[in-house]
Amino acid sequence: MASMDALSESAEMMIKNINELASNGERVRTSDLSTKTELKPATVTEMIQRLGEIGLVDYQPYHGVHLTKQGQHVADVIDHRFNILQRFLTEILGVEKEEAAEVACRMEHILTRDVENRLSNFLGVDKEAESDLFCHKVNVDSESEPEFIPLTNFKEGKTGKVRLILEKSELTNTLEQAGLSPGRTVIVKKANGKSYDVETEEGSLSLDSDLAAKIIIQN
């Protein structure tokens, strides 16, 4: 399972684009995604493969991609965020619809749950419907702990294997040198919600919550 907080903006946008292109349950072609996102086909394929590794899409080479139950849930949450942001901008602030849509599309990826609740309450959004949306459990058919979770959800003293680091950055090489890269084993020594002390085969290091949320671990 991938926490919403663990997904980069680019990953959320790819999920959103897949959802928008899907029709009648048909698989979406990577060529169509490439055209819509203006990204190279190889880049699109790489992003889709990463989303597939954490269970958000089902991708088959030459047969396209579709959202899994988990991926559809993420798409629904993103859509909900966009709608309440657009409503607030147009109905309350008087922003033109076209501009509001552009701004809402940018803001939907950084909206915190607390601000989301406040906006929903302010706009009179149906609390029961919203509760159904956000109380939806990923992997509902399984009572066991999800196989893939962000490092921020990992318990102290637990050992797992790094499967994916979302969003490339200059820090990636540093993490790899410290032994924190896909396929490597990691142990969470201490976690307090703000920082995470981990031990790898190469040594120990401390991560802040923003970075830890982008590291997907396999139980």
From TrEMBL:
<dbReference type="InterPro" id="IPR036390">
    <property type="entry name" value="WH_DNA-bd_sf"/>
</dbReference>
<feature type="domain" description="HTH dtxR-type">
    <location>
        <begin position="7"/>
        <end position="68"/>
    </location>
</feature>
<dbReference type="InterPro" id="IPR038157">
    <property type="entry name" value="FeoA_core_dom"/>
</dbReference>
<dbReference type="GO" id="GO:0046983">
    <property type="term" value="F:protein dimerization activity"/>
</dbReference>
<dbReference type="InterPro" id="IPR008988">
    <property type="entry name" value="Transcriptional_repressor_C"/>
</dbReference>
<dbReference type="GO" id="GO:0046914">
    <property type="term" value="F:transition metal ion binding"/>
</dbReference>
<dbReference type="InterPro" id="IPR001367">
    <property type="entry name" value="Fe_dep_repressor"/>
</dbReference>
<dbReference type="GO" id="GO:0003700">
    <property type="term" value="F:DNA-binding transcription factor activity"/>
</dbReference>
<comment type="subunit">
    <text>Homodimer.</text>
</comment>
<dbReference type="InterPro" id="IPR022689">
    <property type="entry name" value="Iron_dep_repressor"/>
</dbReference>
<dbReference type="Pfam" id="PF02742">
    <property type="entry name" value="Fe_dep_repr_C"/>
</dbReference>
<dbReference type="InterPro" id="IPR036388">
    <property type="entry name" value="WH-like_DNA-bd_sf"/>
</dbReference>
<dbReference type="InterPro" id="IPR036421">
    <property type="entry name" value="Fe_dep_repressor_sf"/>
</dbReference>
<dbReference type="GO" id="GO:0003677">
    <property type="term" value="F:DNA binding"/>
</dbReference>
<comment type="similarity">
    <text>Belongs to the DtxR/MntR family.</text>
</comment>
<keyword id="KW-0804">Transcription</keyword>
<keyword id="KW-0805">Transcription regulation</keyword>
<keyword id="KW-0238">DNA-binding</keyword>
<keyword id="KW-0408">Iron</keyword>
<dbReference type="GO" id="GO:0005737">
    <property type="term" value="C:cytoplasm"/>
</dbReference>
<dbReference type="InterPro" id="IPR050536">
    <property type="entry name" value="DtxR_MntR_Metal-Reg"/>
</dbReference>
<dbReference type="Pfam" id="PF01325">
    <property type="entry name" value="Fe_dep_repress"/>
</dbReference>
<dbReference type="Pfam" id="PF04023">
    <property type="entry name" value="FeoA"/>
</dbReference>
<dbReference type="InterPro" id="IPR007167">
    <property type="entry name" value="Fe-transptr_FeoA-like"/>
</dbReference>
<dbReference type="InterPro" id="IPR022687">
    <property type="entry name" value="HTH_DTXR"/>
</dbReference>
<protein>
    <recommendedName>
        <fullName>HTH dtxR-type domain-containing protein</fullName>
    </recommendedName>
</protein>
